[in-house]
Amino acid sequence: MVSHVQEQLEEEIAKMKASMGRKPRKAPSASIQAEIDRLNIQFQKGRISEEYYDSQYEALSEKLRQIKEEAAPVNLAAYKRLEDAFSGNWKEIYENLDNAHKNAFWKSIISRIEIDPETHKIKGFKFI
Predict the structure, then answer these.
(1) What band does 60 get if pLDDT is binned at 50, 70 and 90?
(2) Is the torsion defined by CA of 67, 64, 106, 128 positive or negative?
(3) % of the chain beyond a pLDDT of 70
(4) 19-22: which pairs have CB atoms within 8 A and are 24 or more residues apart?
(5) DSSP state letters, the chain
(6) Chain mean position to CA 119
(7) What pLDDT score does 38 carry?
(8) How far is Cα 87 from Cα 115, in angstroms, rounded to an integer?
(9) In this structure, is the dihedral angle defined by the CA atoms of residues 111, 114, 127 and 25, taken in order, positive or negative?
(10) How many Å apart are CA 15 and CA 52, to the nearest integer?
(11) Contact yes or no for 112/126 (Cβ under 8 A)
C-alpha cells in the first residue's frame, strides 16, 4: 500500500492543480437522477424484474456518484493536509509506528481503497 499511495497522491495533486485554472463544467446529474426516478417507478409498477432494477440502479448510482465527485469544488485545505502528511521522511516515520497507529494513519487520509476485481490488486485510492 505504501508503494502505491505516493504515486497516486502525486497524480491527484497534479489533477487538482490543472483543474484550478478551468471553469467547472455543468454536470448532467439532473438527467441521471430523473432516469433513476423513472427506473423506480417502473419497478414499483412491476414492469421490470428485480435483477434488472438492481443492475440499472447500481450503474446509474455509480454514474451519479462520479459526476458529483468530478463537479465537487477543489478542496485546497484537504490537499494541503495530504501534502503535509506525505512530506519529508514520512515512510521512515510510518515504518516505526505500531499496527494500531499505522491503521489510524491510513484511516485519517484514505476513505476508500479501489481493488481491481480481476487481478485483486490495488487499483487506486479515494483520499479524504
Answers:
(1) very high
(2) positive
(3) 77
(4) 19/74, 20/74
(5) -HHHHHHHHHHHHHHHHHHHTSPPPPP-HHHHHHHHHHHHHHHHTT-S-HHHHHHHHHHHHHHHHHHHHHHSPP-HHHHHHHHHHTSSSHHHHHHTS-HHHHHHHHHHHEEEEEE-TTT-SEEEEEE-
(6) 19
(7) 95
(8) 26
(9) negative
(10) 36
(11) yes
pTM equals: 0.44
Instruction: Report the chain's terminal Cα–Cα distance, integer Å.
Output: 16
Mean pLDDT of 1-13: 71
Where residue 46 falls (left for φ over 0; alpha for ψ -120 to 50; beta otherwise) is left
Residue with cell 485510492: 125
Q: What are phi and psi of 122, to 5 degrees?
A: -65, 125
- In this structure, the strands spanning 122-127 and 110-115 are antiparallel
pLDDT of residue 54: 94
Mean pLDDT is lowest, of 2-16, 40-54, 59-73, for 2-16
